[in-house]
UniProtKB/TrEMBL annotation:
It comes from Halalkalibacter wakoensis JCM 9140. It comes from the Bacteria. This is Glyoxylate/hydroxypyruvate reductase B. It catalyses: (R)-glycerate + NAD(+) = 3-hydroxypyruvate + NADH + H(+); (R)-glycerate + NADP(+) = 3-hydroxypyruvate + NADPH + H(+); glycolate + NADP(+) = glyoxylate + NADPH + H(+). One of its GO terms (cellular component) is cytosol. PROSITE patterns: D_2_HYDROXYACID_DH_1. It holds the Pfam family 2-Hacid_dh_C. Residues 29-208 form the D-isomer specific 2-hydroxyacid dehydrogenase NAD-binding domain. InterPro entries: D-isomer_2-hydroxyacid_DH, D-isomer_2_OHA_DH_cat_dom, D-isomer_DH_CS1, D-isomer_DH_NAD-bd, NAD(P)-bd_dom_sf.
Amino acid sequence: MDVAELTKRNIMATNTPGILDDTTADAIFGLMLSTARRIPELNQFVKDGKWNISLQPDQYGVDVHHKTLGIIGMGNIGSAIAKRANLGFGMNILYHNRSRNKQAEEAYQAIYCDLDELLEQSDFVCLMVPATKETEKLMGERQFKKMKNTAIFINGSRGKNVDEDALYDALQNKDILAAGIDVFTEEPTNPKNPLLSLKNIVTLPHIGSSTTECEYNMSKLAADNLKSGLKGEKPPSIINPEIFGN
Ligand SMILES: NC(=O)C1=CN([C@@H]2O[C@H](COP(=O)(O)OP(=O)(O)OC[C@H]3O[C@@H](n4cnc5c(N)ncnc54)[C@H](OP(=O)(O)O)[C@@H]3O)[C@@H](O)[C@H]2O)C=CC1
Ligand SMILES: O=C(O)C(=O)CO
């Protein structure tokens, strides 16, 4: 939303902050586990009746616990991911923001670093920045080449933050091990999107916040915002409260 323009026109803008952080972090963690342990692929292996021999080493996954997770965008959802990773899976946390997040540093021993350093050192790179002019194609050819070729890339933010052609090349050329993607440049993505032809990518149809409970809570807060707005009162989660003169 162009909030400045809405404010100029005296139009209220509201959102549903806070209530989807844990749900989205669960989904992102699901992508991390699915890509690392190759869960969708091995699920299909069993269902296709192929489990008549022992698993071969080329079907093994990689560990998640005690690895290094780099979070680009340590905000609300990034912090909820760091909590799961550090307190639950004993992972080391690196992060990159434009400013320091002291709370995440204290609670999850997160270490601040510049983007290149994070890319070079992380076993998992999780992108959680908003979509802005500054973050458009933040992950491109140069950034994927900086990552370890054993590393896994996760995008739970917005599709436009990634150059999809560069991601395809990185996965195809094995510059990185795998990717887990909840969001695409164009949604729904074209079924002919070359990314979908790759074995080393796990995809979801932008379902970060799509649980029964979370969708209900978001709808309820959206309805409460709307009811207040229609009565001319300040909505519970207004983005541009300056409309009300404070
Ligand atoms: N997949 C899904 O279903 C969902 C996806 N999302 C998406 O997840 C993302 C994160 O959401 P949320 O955690 O609520 O957002 P927050 O605003 O809480 O966090 C965003 C973080 O990104 C950092 N950031 C912003 N710009 C830059 C930049 N140019 N370079 C580096 N860091 C930057 C901010 O820190 P600083 O300002 O210091 O740079 C901040 O820590 C958003 O893209 C959102 O749209 C949200 C909900 C569900
Ligand atoms: O709820 C979602 O799906 C979002 O991405 C919100 O930003």
